[in-house]
Amino acid sequence: MDADVVVIGAGALGLSTALHAALAGRSVTIIERDTAGSQASGRAAGLFKSVQADQLRTVLARRSIDRARSFEAWAGVPLTVAGSGSFLIARTSAHKQYLQQEQRQSQAWGVDVQDAAGPVLSYYHGDASELALWCPEDIYIEEPADLVRAYAAAARRHGAQLLEHEAAIGITLSGGRVTGVETANQTITTPVVVDAAGAWVRQVADLAGGRVAVAPVRHQLLITERSAGVNGADPIVRVVDAAVYLRPARGGLMVGGFEAAPLAVDPRAEHPSFRTEDLELDLGVLRKLTAPVAAEAPLAADAPVAEHRGGLFTMSPDGRFIAGPLPDVPGLWVASGCNGSGFSSSLGIGEALAGWICAIPGRLDISALSPGRFGPLTDEALIDAGMWQYAHYYDPGPDGSA
Ligand SMILES: Cc1cc2nc3c(=O)[nH]c(=O)nc-3n(C[C@H](O)[C@H](O)[C@H](O)COP(=O)(O)OP(=O)(O)OC[C@H]3O[C@@H](n4cnc5c(N)ncnc54)[C@H](O)[C@@H]3O)c2cc1C
Q1: Which end of the chain is more exposed for a tag (fewer CB within 10 A), N or C?
Q2: Cβ(348) – ligand 1 distance below 6 Å
Q3: What is the per-residue pLDDT for 396?
Q4: What is the pLDDT of residues 384-400, one digit of tens each?
């Protein structure tokens, strides 16, 4: 078998890159060790956020919102999105200042971010002491599997082949260049391999002697039982000082958050069969995170839990995506460094990365996200930086470095 492009990993980032390469007329094969969307992508909260810490991420996030809304028109497969908008809320003076600064810079980059009163919603009771910003562009996808299914169906429709239960176990090289991918069943000859293996991105790069600077870090959310106290039409709420997000889900409330001392997990140190379902979850983390919003969102703190799920983010040292060619292994490309936004930004990242691979004129320049931007890093330094980025997801610190 041969292909112009082989994508390893059928999560949101791999599927989007594959779909866009197929739309560009390339023959594409996606190989997935388990099933499409079975790892991080199938567990995402599904939130899209137009306010981002830098201009490139803003462009990617807004492009992704547009492309999710218009998915059927360009990909030929229906996709339902909730055009809910969102509130960004701050209750401490430091976080208020921070949000005001984010508002100014996001507005300068074209984002619609409006001053608002502390919102009074079915599930969140704000007040006048809060700083609230209304972000009407923001959306969510109720079930993350819907985007995965839409990507897979659209990729197939445009000629891509998706092979599930087919793990990459080798990457072949000739004269240092990529020539193919080996699975237990076959060798696929190709000049271009995209490593989109999520939390396993380093193991896959290592098959060709490449290095990718990511630290996998656990993230969790819960969905409460259905409740008359949640209006499904209400918007998303992000309380930045508490580092929590809330949205209606399945008739109840979804609650997720970012703890200050997260759990880093290295799949390389685990059993080779390690999967997301083996990740230990800790409801206590979410209970601690929601305590500071118990007055405003009582359901978040104490409603019975219908689902508690979690998975691994791929954190990078600077909090930005990692997307581009690996400098030391010609033909090997990376789509990773999700930093918690890989589901929502996958539409824009996949489009830009496939555009780069296929040399499409006028594509968005994402060379700032090249994997080669990091010098050599010890695992310890990588984990420290990744955990710092995670803990500052809504609040990138005084120098705005995230
Ligand atoms: C609880 C939770 C909530 C989240 N909420 C949001 C959100 O609201 N918005 C947002 O934008 N992001 C969110 N994220 C982050 C988002 O899920 C990730 O950024 C995104 O899913 C990453 O996609 P991926 O394709 O890199 O990884 P994955 O979805 O993990 O896909 C990688 C795939 O590679 C496969 N693979 C690994 N090794 C091999 C191999 N050797 N051969 C073949 N295949 C292999 C895996 O089986 C896997 O299917 C959330 C994450 C979690 C865990």
Answers
A1: N
A2: no
A3: 56
A4: 999 999 999 887 554 44
- Please state, in angstroms and rounded to a whole number, the distance separating the CA atoms of residues 21 and 278: 33
**Any atom of ligand 1 within 6 Å of the Cβ of 328:** no
Ligand 1 centre distance from Cα of residue 132 (Å): 31
pTM for this structure? 0.97
Which pLDDT value is given to residue 395?
74
Q: Which atom of ligand 1 is nearest to the CA of 34?
A: 47
Q: How confident is the model at residue 205 (pLDDT cuts 50, 70, 90)?
A: very high
Q: Which runs of consecutive H residues, i.e. helices, occur in 209-273?
A: none
To test the pocket of ligand 1, the residue of 343, 347, 393, 394 to mutate (highest count of ligand atoms within 8 Å of its CB) is 343
Atom of ligand 1 nearest to the CA of 344: 11
Pairwise CA distance, residues 183 & 166, whole Å? 6
- State whether the beta carbon of 183 lies less than 6 angstroms from ligand 1: no
What pLDDT was estimated at residue 374?
95
> Is the distance from the beta carbon of residue 210 to the nearest atom of ligand 1 less than 6 Å?
no
The token pair at 249 is: 């889900």
Max CA-CA distance within the chain? Answer: 65
| CB neighbour list of residue 137: distance below 8 Å, 6 or more residues apart | 50, 62, 65, 85, 111, 112
CA of 54 to the centre of ligand 1 (A): 22
> 129: CA distance to ligand 1 center in Å?
38
Rounded distance from Cα 386 to ligand 1 centre (Å): 16
Pairing of strands 5-8, 28-31: parallel
Phi, psi of 266 (to 5 degrees): -110, 105
CA 299–ligand 1 middle distance (angstroms): 28
The answer to whether 333 touches 326, Cβ cutoff 8 Å, is yes
Is ligand 1 within 6 A of the CB of residue 40? Answer: yes
Cα–Cα distance list, 33 to 173, 178, 282 (Å): 21, 20, 27
pLDDT digits (tens, 9 = 90+) for 286-305: 999 999 999 999 999 999 99
Instruction: For residue 87, give the nearest of 256, 246, 218, 283 by alpha carbon.
Output: 246
Higher pLDDT, 50 or 375: 50
Terminal-to-terminal C-alpha distance of the chain: 42
